[in-house]
Design brief:
Number of domains: 4
Structural class: alpha/beta
Distance between the termini: 69 Å
Strand content: 5-15%
Number of strands: 16
Radius of gyration: 26 Å
CATH topology of the largest domain: Rossmann fold
CATH superfamily of the largest domain: P-loop containing nucleotide triphosphate hydrolases
């Protein structure tokens, strides 16, 4: 006979406790109640619980004390907090202390049921790595990243992944999703910089038939498509101000309204966002909302640049080479090729390494990549430091053209070939970048 999961409710309001007990009992769960921190700690010391729900304000302390106690005594037990409507600071503090998720008062029963179902699926141990996205590397920093991802996977707290382009931010987001309780549900990745501003609301929230010209049928948005799973907002700093307001409301209310619709729909998604930009600086510059920043950046995961973990380059290169080859014709890297890769700065990070090896594989003979096949060019910053301008061999204009060409190529590598993003990175207009690329023969 299977024992029903047991839930501990910690709240000093008898009416709310009764409502929660009734709702959870109808879900087939065993429920135990406590009215304060001391009683909760006594219950936790003598019994194992599958989930803890605690109010933030209690007669003899705060719900954060319960969160921290559970995190120390029973890390595998998910804790959710109940906070007053609009108390964003309390919710964020609880998530940072280790809470799984939070509910706002008045508690909506459909949101409660969704949270409980998700919480009770939380794995106690990381899943087997077979079939999961991979973050290759055995450096100390990558071991720390993987350990942090395993912890983040158990939480429902919003995560902001920072790091340069090409460092594996989306891979990290997919891994957080795949190791968590939402793994069987959708993972929807959205490039916020690639959606036209006039279509953003429809793309995110969906639309009703006839809402605008061309809306011939009802259509779901990203939030509905990711229901029960994870919504990954890549390059979130690119969101225009009007969309930032709408996104903030959707995150606060956990409800969305389709364009042309009159009713709001409840949505259950975990938000993971990312950007190669410094989001805090974007807030200071007035380009990103302060309140949305704190909603998204509850926990930050910083992905290191490839040059910060050079010891992983040979392992990464061998892994990519194995993927490029096949059983009948494997791809091999010579010792001088591995040495050249280890000394290269990789402004485009892992994505640039993949591009370099794919190009070298196409040019190599017999599947053996040597240093000559790599065609590595020192990045502009190293050219300026090590070589400088040699006036004996070229004109000043030739030297300036070479530096400009390398800067543009580096920016394109960092943005995955996106010219609009590359222009922003170089702090020039798109028209100026296009002109420069035509003049240098790069278009």
């Amino acid at each position: 006979m299977t024992t029903a999961p047991c839930v501990l409710i910690v709240d000093d309001e008898p009416d709310l406790r009764e409502v929660l007990e009734l709702a959870l009992t109808r879900m087939g769960l065993t429920v135990v109640s406590s009215a304060d921190v001391a009683e909760a700690r006594a219950q936790l010391a003598h019994r194992r619980f599958d989930l803890v729900l605690t109010d933030m304000r209690l007669p003899d302390g705060e719900g954060l004390e319960v969160v921290r106690y559970v995190a120390q005594s029973s890390p595998a037990t998910p804790v959710a907090v109940i906070t007053a409507y609009g108390s964003t600071d309390n919710a964020v503090a609880a998530l940072k202390a280790g809470a799984f998720d939070y509910l706002t008062k008045p508690v909506k029963l459909e949101v409660l049921r969704s949270l409980v179902k998700t919480a009770l699926k939380v794995p106690e141990t990381p899943k087997a790595s077979q079939g999961l996205p991979q973050l290759i590397g055995e450096s100390a920093i990558m071991r720390q990243i993987r350990a942090r991802i395993e912890k983040l996977a158990r939480s429902q707290a919003p995560v902001f992944i920072s790091g340069e382009s090409g460092t594996g931010k989306e891979v990290a987001a997919r891994l957080i999703h795949a190791l968590g309780p939402r793994a069987s549900r959708p993972f929807v990745a959205v490039n916020c910089g690639a959606i036209p501003e006039n279509l953003m609301e429809s793309e995110f929230f969906g639309h009703r038939k006839g809402a605008f010209t061309g809306a011939q049928t009802d259509r779901e948005g990203f939030f509905q498509a990711a229901h029960g799973g994870t919504l990954f907002l890549d390059e979130v700093a690119e969101l225009p101000p009007a969309m930032q307001v709408k996104l903030l409301r959707a995150l606060q209310e956990r409800r969305v309204r389709r364009v042309g619709g009159v009713k709001e729909e409840a949505v259950d998604v975990r938000i993971i966002s990312a950007s190669h930009q410094d989001l805090a600086r974007a807030v200071e510059a007035g380009r990103f909302r302060h309140d949305l920043y704190y909603r998204l950046n509850v926990i930050e995961l910083k992905m290191p640049a490839l040059r910060e973990r050079r010891e992983d380059i040979p392992l990464l290169a061998q892994h990519i080479a194995a993927r490029l080859g096949s059983g009948a014709s494997p791809v091999r890297l010579t010792a001088d090729a591995l040495d050249a890769l280890a000394r290269y700065a990789f402004p485009g990070n892992v994505r640039e390494l993949e591009n370099i090896l794919e190009r070298a594989h196409a040019l190599s003979e017999d599947g053996c990549i040597s240093a000559g096949d790599l065609d590595l060019t020192p990045p502009p910053e190293l050219q300026g430091q090590e070589a400088g301008w040699d006036d004996g061999g070229s004109s000043l204009q030739d030297y300036l053209d070479r530096v400009e060409r390398e800067a543009i190529l580096s920016a394109l590598a960092r943005t995955g070939g996106n010219k609009t993003a590359a222009a922003r990175l170089l702090k020039v207009t798109f028209r100026s970048l296009r002109y420069r690329m035509e003049r240098l023969g790069l278009d």
